[in-house]
Design a protein that fits this description.
By secondary structure, the protein is an alpha/beta fold. The protein contains 11 helices and 20 strands. Helix 7 crosses helix 8 and helix 9 runs antiparallel to helix 10. The two termini are 17 Å apart. The structure holds zinc ion. Zinc ion binds next to loops.
């Protein structure tokens, strides 16, 4: 596969970000010995370095990843930064030095990568629909709209940790507030937005359509995207980033994910051919221009699929992806030991009519358990799910399938639709 095009400026910033980290950031002192030298091309320098993990971030918090001898205590006092913690399991949680102006600039640069969002700026009205563990105001009691409205322009439609707490009252309130607030952008966790859309379709209620819907927070299921497109007329665009690294990829109007090259460097690391390489791989991200945090080769933990042909939209610079396929930690294995991403399972199950959600757990290398939420609960759905999964895992795969009323999200408030109950030996798989 051909390496993508990058501008001379991109390489220049890659060098500068690395030089600044090695020269001034305490956490990278031991990395200096790995650097082959400043005269060496940026790609070779980066490839020679280790990956930065969330554990490294925790070990060096708060001062260890700060560049240029800046002082965290002073930054907090001046209001330039605040502590923001990501949610999840112990191994997922990280506290970040949150710098709002850098975040906004990273977001605005990503908007330029899609014709439907290129006109946006931070003055337009925006509604957010996500777990309150991810964003907004968390509250057990219901909050009035004014208490969920920030600066008059950002409305958090939900104040609950999970959508399992929603009743008809909350669905009706969200539908009414969309119509009343009339946001230009609706940024949403796809699992939550799909629930609102199904409620609207089931109850024949029409929802106000914003100009554009931005899908983020977790890997969208194709069954959820289908439902969102049925209920809302706006273009649906996936944005991929992380709290730690900012906005990394943005889907263009042709559906390709383009790298946000003005704000991050991405190193693509293909998997072994047996497991989907060289098109499928991990990525290490180096954000640019963040004055308070220097992440170099941050392992975001997701698997992505490279595109081969040029995108018809005409954008040329940077990696472009046909898909983000889910977290490496959520992969399962086929009967022959091949890696199976969440997206692969999702594609197969999304072809089954009437499914609304699912959770696939690989109990042992030979046994898979699937729970499904489905309209109608028919025998044909069970048979179709079994066939779909056997096409992914192998004809002899032992697959147990049960209907259930609902699926619970993970402790982060986000959904984890596939995983194995045994270690996958990632070190052996990745290289
Ligand atoms: Zn494109």
């Amino acid at each position: 596969m051909q390496k993508p095009y990058f501008s001379a400026e991109y390489y220049q910033i890659s060098h500068e970000a690395l030089d600044a980290a090695l020269d001034t950031v305490p956490a990278y002192r031991p990395w200096r010995a790995c650097d082959p030298g400043r005269h060496v091309p940026a790609d070779e320098r980066y490839a020679a370095l280790p990956l930065l993990t969330k554990q490294d971030m925790r070990d060096h918090f708060p001062q260890g990843l700060v560049p240029g001898n800046r002082n965290v205590t002073a930054g907090l006092e001046l209001g330039e930064i605040e502590y923001v913690q990501t949610n999840g399991t112990t191994s997922e949680k990280v506290t970040n030095l949150w710098n709002q102006s850098w975040w906004n600039a990273s977001e605005a640069a990503s908007w330029k990568l899609n014709a439907h969002t290129a006109h946006l700026d931070h003055s337009c009205r925006e509604a957010q629909l996500a777990s309150a563990l991810s964003v907004g105001v968390l509250s057990r009691s219901d909050l009035p709209m004014q208490s969920r409205l920030l600066n008059g322009r950002l409305l958090f439609l939900n104040e609950k940790a999970t959508a399992l707490e929603w009743t008809d009252v909350h669905y009706a309130r969200m539908a009414a507030e969309l119509g009343q607030f009339k946001p230009e952008i609706l940024e949403a966790n796809p699992s939550l937005l799909a629930r609102l859309c199904w409620w609207a379709l089931d109850n024949r209620i029409s929802l106000y359509s914003p100009r554009v819907i931005l899908i983020t927070y977790e890997l969208p299921s194709a069954m959820h995207l289908q439902c969102i497109r049925r209920a809302l007329r706006a273009p649906v665009v996936s944005s991929y980033g992380t709290t730690e690294a900012g906005y990394i990829f943005m889907q263009c109007e042709q559906g390709t994910f383009h790298q946000n090259t003005g704000f991050c460097r991405v190193d693509f690391m293909p998997l072994q051919d047996l497991h989907g390489g060289p098109a499928l791989g991990r990525i290490a991200v180096t954000p640019f221009h963040n004055p308070w945090t220097a992440l170099i080769r941050f392992d975001v933990g997701d698997l992505v699929r490279r595109g081969n042909a040029a995108c018809p939209c005409g954008r040329r610079e940077g990696w472009h992806l046909t898909a983000v396929e889910g977290r490496a930690a959520d992969c399962t294995l086929s009967l022959t030991g091949r890696l199976v991403t969440t997206a692969r399972v999702d594609d197969a199950l999304s072809a089954v009519g009437g499914l609304r959600d699912y959770e696939l757990v690989q109990q042992t290398p030979e046994r898979y358990c699937l729970r499904i939420v489905a309209e109608g609960r028919t025998r044909a759905q069970i048979d179709a799910c079994r066939q779909a999964l056997q096409s992914v895992y192998g004809r002899a795969a032992g697959i147990e399938i049960d209907f259930c009323d609902d699926i619970e999200p993970a402790v982060s408030g986000k959904y984890r639709r596939t995983h194995a109950r045994f270690p996958l030996d990632p070190e052996g798989l990745w290289t």
